[in-house]
Amino acid sequence: MPEGDTIFQTAAALRPLLVGQQIVRASARAPGPQIQRVIGSHVLSVEPVGKHMIIRFDNGLALHTHLRMGGTWHRYGPGQPWRIAAWKARVVLETATDVVVCFNAPVAELMQDRAVALHPALKALGPDLISSSFSPDEAFARLRSLSDAEIAEALLDQRVMAGIGNVFKSEILFIHSINPWTHVSDISDDVLRSMIATAQRLLVENATSGNPHRITTRGDPGAHGSSYVYGRANRPCPRCGTPIRVRRQGALNRSTYWCPTCETTRELPRTAYP
User: Fold this and answer.
1) Do 97 and 150 share a domain, yes or no?
2) Average pLDDT over residues 60-80
3) What does the pLDDT look like over 167-184, one tens digit per residue?
């Protein structure tokens, strides 16, 4: 699933292609948004909101997309062959010079711009980690309120902080030596605040790295070994050499990577961890 930093960079890449440009053609896969309603309008803005993206038009409409696991945006020149099958295109926006295609996005909605702030999924989002207005105090209060949740699940909850996905979840917990199955209530205020600061730092660093296709939490995004534990099952931990483990976790059955030696939570354990 694309994380907040990827959506931030995608929006940044789409802005020079769309903002200020008139939409000359538009289409969407059925069933889908009536995107033809934006033909003739000009794009006002392309805004990332956590893992969501909002494209606003000067006719009072807005396109909301969420890529989830398999969605992606591509840019093509007029008449240029697409790298993905056309039937996978959810939304196509064309200007005089560019064809912008959203493939495989499970969420693609056209709505009145004034309705964006009232959208249930967007209204429920916690503070956006990449936003200049990010509030660590609000994120802390929201995280602390999930006292019975396992910390790995709490970090993924977009109502707490918007932008963290499965990669950053595992990496943040490793950096802080926190076992993913630790309950939020068993982690001190200082550690929670430190984890929030790490999450903000990692997402901002990756959002501004210039490489939307490679996440790094430990160095050069172009180099090998750019993560500590994520995607490294059965390989040696970079700290202690213990084989890294992976297990499905939570209601969404997401993969969690961790080091069973390093991530022995230095708080008061409530359960026997895997």
Assistant:
1) no
2) 90
3) 999 999 999 999 999 999
Active-site residue flag, 51: yes
Residues 104 and 149 grouped into a single domain: no
Q: Is the pLDDT of residue 204 over 70?
A: yes
176 and 251 share one domain: yes
What are the two backbone dihedrals, phi and then psi, of residue 189, each rounded to the nearest 5 degrees?
A: -60, -45
CA–CA dist 48, 130 (Å, integer): 9
Q: Is 12 in the same domain as 42?
A: yes
Q: Which of 29, 33, 48, 51 is catalytic?
A: 51
Residue 169 among the catalytic residues: no
| pLDDT value, residue 210 | 62
Respond yes or no: is residue 180 known to be catalytic: no
Active-site annotation holder among 37, 239, 245, 254: 254
Element of type H or E holding 193 = helix 189-207
**Active-site option among 3, 94, 153, 263:** 3
